[in-house]
Amino acid sequence: METMTEVKTVRKKAEQVLDALSKPLVERDEAVRLAFLSAVAGESIFLLGPPGVGKSLIARRLKQAFSGGRSFEYLMSRFSTPDEIFGPVSVKKLKEEDKYERLTDAYLPGADVVFLDEIWKSGPAIRNALLTVLNEKIYRNGDTDIKVNVRGIIAASNELPLDKESNEPLWDRFLIRYRLGNIQNPKGFLKMITDTGDVFEDFLKEENKLSPSLLDDWNREINKVEIPEEVLNIIQVVRFKLDRYNQNAGDGNRPIFIHDRRWKKIIRLIRTSSYLNGRNRADLSDSLLMLHCLWHRPEDVAVISEFVSDAVKRHGYAMAVNLGMLKKEMTNLKADIDKETRIRRTIIEEKLLPSKEDYFELKLSDRKFEGRYISIKSFNNLNRNDWQVTNFFDENLSLVNRLKSKKSKEEFKMEVMHNSVSHTLEMVTSPVERQEIISKAPHEIIENHWDGKIESLLRYIGENQEKAERLFKEKTEENGTHLFVNKDLCSLTTSNLREVIEELEKLRLQAEKLRYSYKNL
Question: Do the beta carbons of residue 333 and residue 354 sit within 8 Å?
């Protein structure tokens, strides 16, 4: 594996190339970057958009990234023949050696960058030949399989005729799918229509172009890029969401099937993205490239965007540090400590409770006068020192008496003045259960067991806190400057990291409190 310094040099090189390729273009930066990424990854990209939005221009500029780069460009029609794409049959070979072989050098098999416009208009013979070229970089020329060195294949169309079964195998070969539209920014639009510069001008110095040997070196290093657990977790989450979506598909929603080969190619794309961004370990931000790889129809884009963004924002690093299991383990440990150190017993106490809504009741045997109920408000207003005129009510809560009263010194009793004599009357109470907890110090053996568990938890939390904080610092320093993912999307990864750091700190404090709880009994 290359050193970090060498990998950072790769990023600088990639930045130089991308800046030069995008220099004269307006609102086509992302498309150019994705086309470049797909080319370095050895994959293909499909551009969907109306005529005149720069699809062929992107292909022509991409060619400039490669030293001695040759391009092949062709506008497909239903009359297109394999000769026009893969080269004419060699008459000399046919006459002298009786071999059916094409002259491919000036055609698709001999190019570095290929642009095939209106690809869905091509016939079955062309499509079948393209399948192995796109997937395996192999073209069968006569009776010989030849390895084609095509770096990037860009196909384009203004339609997606996916209802035709014959199109599905070819469509599946395009890993990146990107929609191009008209320029939206008014200033950008005016700049484009008034600019008299040559949009095909090569701004990349020859020494900064990518040579075949350099690309071969990169390819070997890309294969060594580590795919961390958090990235694999996100892929699993998105895959699960798609499976569930497909099971519930209906009411106009068609399923979105992603086959195993595409997932493997996505990993290759993630590795390439990480390497070109100057890292030898993939990052959650690289997994956001799935947004361009999983949709089949334009109406799928919103669904895929929700699945991928939600997976990164909610799960991401949280799954990598196993936050859910950590919380469960902490809960179980707390329950174990409580069970051992907190003895619960039930105590029955008498409580003064309303016999009727908003009324306390006097005990019948104690009554010396007419009136059985007193309002709760009146009773609560009484004190032990001053006599107050109080209303008493019968069973129907009708007012039947007004007597001076005050609270007794004894609980649940009151003093009532009747016929100039003070009577102590008892209130009706009800038995109420309450739980009393008695703390008990744990046995030394059990305490040592808990100490070991908490130390293990704190060590695990500390290691992951340090890792998460380091990643957060790196992300903050990068300031969202991912070469292939926009800044707003990259913020999802820092948001998830921030939440993980906060949750780990809460768990650390919880562990410390648990230890304090049984150490100080």
Answer: no
Q: What percent of the chain has pLDDT over 90?
A: 53
Rounded mean pLDDT of 333-361?
Answer: 91
Question: How many whole angstroms separate alpha carbon 461 and alpha carbon 469?
Answer: 12
Give pLDDT, residue 163: 64
Whether pLDDT at 164 is above 70: no
CA distance 47 to 45: 7
pLDDT-derived band at 199 (thresholds 50, 70, 90) equals confident
Rounded Cα–Cα distance for residues 119 and 142 (Å): 24
Among 362, 351, 356, which residue's Cα sits nearest to residue 418?
362
Beta strands in 338-443 (DSSP E): 342-351, 359-361, 373-375, 388-393, 399-407, 413-418, 421-426, 430-439
3-state helix, strand, coil split of the chain in percent (to 5) is: 50, 20, 30
Q: CB pairs under 8 A, 24+ apart, for 302-306?
A: 303/245, 303/256, 304/256
In whole angstroms, give the CA distance from residue 107 to residue 129.
Answer: 13
Confidence of residue 33 (pLDDT cuts 50, 70, 90): very high
Q: Please name each of the domains of the chain with its CATH number.
A: 1-211 (3.40.50.300), 321-346+436-519 (no CATH), 354-428 (no CATH)
Phi–psi pair at 281, nearest 5 degrees: -140, 130
User: Which residues lie below 8 Å from residue 299, measured CB to CB, with a gap of 6+?
Assistant: none
Helix, strand counts (H, E) of the chain: 18, 15
CB atoms < 10 A from the CB of 287, how many? Answer: 29
Strand order across the 176-179 sheet: 71-75, 113-117, 152-157, 44-48, 176-179
pLDDT of residue 2: 55
User: How far, in Å, are 129, 313, 338, 456 from residue 341 at the CA level?
Assistant: 75, 39, 5, 21
Residue 264 or 93, more confident: 264
Write down how long the chain is: 521
Tell me if 469 sits within 8 A of 501, measured CB to CB: yes
Would the pLDDT of 401 be above 70?
yes
The set of residues, in sequence order, having a beta carbon less than 8 Å from that of 295 and lying 6+ positions away, is 177, 256, 301, 303, 304
Confidence of residue 145 (pLDDT cuts 50, 70, 90): confident
Neighbouring-strand partners of residue 359: 356, 375
The helix or strand, by DSSP H or E, that contains position 176, with its residue range, turns out to be strand 176-179
Nearest alpha-carbon partner for 47 in 146, 135, 116: 116
